[in-house]
Amino acid sequence: MNEEDLAFLSTRIDHTNELLQRMLAEVAKTPSTHAIFVDAGYLYAAAGRLVAGTEDRRAFDLDAEGLIDALIDKARTIFADSRLLRVYWYDGARRRIHTSEQQSIAELPDVKVRLGNLNANNQQKGVDSLIRSDLESLARHRAISDAALIGGDEDLVSAVEAAQGYGARVHLWGIEAAEGRNQAEPLLWEVDSQRTLELDFVKPYVARRTATAYDPATPRPARDDVRFVGARIAATWLGSRGREQMVDLLPGHPYLPGPVDQDLLIEAERLLQYSLRGQADLRRALRDGFWDHLQTQV
């Protein structure tokens, strides 16, 4: 190679190095971005077991807003030079109709609620695929550099692999296990880092529900009275949820989604000051009143 060729090659190398330096400088100016992905099914089960001694959501209250704020603060300290994209909250619901609690969570700033379905056994279906889709899409478009994933299902391994394939780092956060382990080992092996949220972190946001004590002298309400209460609750439900969700509910007649039915029961007992547990005929009258009102609004 003669001197002219060497000079030309040297010039090209210098030019390439200059371009690389510019590119690195631009990358350095670009702030990192992180997002938090919460498998609510795992979160409720693990937090309920740890604090309240049960995985039954009906047995305890979870302050989702307070816990989400705490998770955002935790991420802010861990990813100090990064900005939050948003919190993704994955949960299940009958026919993907938001419960009142899920609707409240969806209205929080920087929170996106994504719903899978619930089967007859109240098991989530489709949540893992939603997590994978979001993780993969955000990583592919370089929308995030880090993902804090709160979950424990082995099915999430593919979601982690998909995000890592596009260069994102995935950090697994778990709730302290009351006993044993509540996250699958293959998931623990696959992620870039692991962190445990201990009892002191979770406890302020979980409270076991106490059974309401009713006066045993309260007379048993008449079926017509219970039916009227069902219609009254339906009117309130319709006012807060809107006609669109009512239309989604109607094809299920005469059955109500589990969360809606549970909320109906609790509110009816509060208004009647009488326990309807074990009162099958009164429960039917309550549901009949609820449906009667909704069907008059069609």
SSE map:
Layout: H1 3-29, E1 32-39, H2 40-52, E2 60-62, H3 64-78, E3 82-93, H4 100-106, E4 111-118, E5 124-125, H5 127-140, E6 146-150, H6 157-165, E7 169-175, H7 185-190, E8 193-197, H8 199-202, E9 206-208, H9 223-241, H10 243-249, H11 258-272, H12 280-296
Helix pairs in contact: 5-6, 9-11, 9-12, 11-12
Protein model, in words:
The protein has about 300 residues and is an alpha/beta fold. About 50% of the residues lie in helices and about 20% in strands. It is built from twelve helices and nine strands. Strands 5-4-3-1-6-7-8 form a seven-stranded mixed beta sheet, sandwiched between helices. It has a two-stranded antiparallel sheet with strand order 2-9. The longest helix is centred in the first third of the chain and has 27 residues.
